[in-house]
Amino acid sequence: MLSHSSIAESKQCRLKRRLLASILFCFSLPLAAWSAPLVQSGQSVAFLGDSITQFGAVSPGGYVRLIESGAAANGVILTVIPAGVSGNKSNQMLERLERDVLSKKPEWMTLSCGVNDVWHGDKGIPLEVYKKNITDILDRCAQGGVKVIILTATQIGLPLDNPNNQKLSGYNAFLKEIARERQLPVADLNEAMASEQAANTAAGLKRSLITDGVHMNHHGNAMMAAGVLRAFGFDDSQIATARKKWRSLPDAVPVTANLKLSFPDMEALEAAAASRKQPVETLIGEQFRNALKSILSERPAPKP
Asked: Which stretches of the chain score pLDDT less than 50?
């Protein structure tokens, strides 16, 4: 017959074995089974930046709105606070931080700053002053309880080793350094941009990410959105889900037709639009979409 002490020891051994089994099971799970994005459904995110960010919030295909729809496709519903202003540099973002971000009390803020500080040349912001401005922005966000994700500044034209990009590398090095010091997430969009361009070249694709040297086209916006989602903690599978959603958006890529008409043709177009009780622009858009559908139906859809 077992003593009370033997029974107690036996129970202890069984308990230890179960605990060990539970620990081993947890470590055997893939990371995605127990990790989750840093940003949570119901939270708000402010996007502080310049014209790249301003334009990124205007249309469904801008990087800010792609982040919003990509997160939603993964069940994470965000409230977006657009805070991009064209032409802004670090000093101007610091000046309006309280009004455009902190007063709205978001849980998160993405910081995209540096292109204009360099690109504006003599009217730009020297590196040491930039460092102080960025530090002040981060300090004030920390005091206001706003978590920050830092975005490295994207390229200023090509080639990658042009004078502006060489100068910009010092600004990006500082961003990554202060992010390490403060343990802040980083979306290295400058590196992501260079990597995607290199991959396109290797594949023989003549595909640009920008429209005018700095502002993003639809490929660039998707690159930025994927990089920020990754910094927010979304994994490859979740980003693939986001990309699938983006490809289903009917109005993700704005297209402007450069039409030139004679006076008689324009007058006839105005009369046709009036008979349909439509603006001329609406009639042109409808006819363009109908013609485009016909063209696209004649060729296979491009691969994702």
From this structure: 1-2, 4, 6-9, 11, 15-16, 19-34
The tens digit of pLDDT for each residue in 234-280 reads 999 999 999 999 999 998 987 777 778 898 888 888 899 899 998 88
Helix axes 236-248, 63-73, angle to 10 degrees: 110
Q: Tokens 């009369």 identify what position?
A: 271
Same domain, 191 and 266: no
Residue 288: CA atoms inside 13 Å, Cβ hemisphere, count? 12
Whole-model pTM: value is 0.80
Partnered with residue 80 across adjacent β-strands are: 45
Q: Domain ends where: 248, 271, 296? A: 248
* Beta partners for residue 95, in sequence order: none
Taking Cα atoms as reference points, which of 171, 176, 130, 126 lies closest to residue 150? Answer: 176
- How many Å apart are CA 220 and CA 52, to the nearest integer? 10
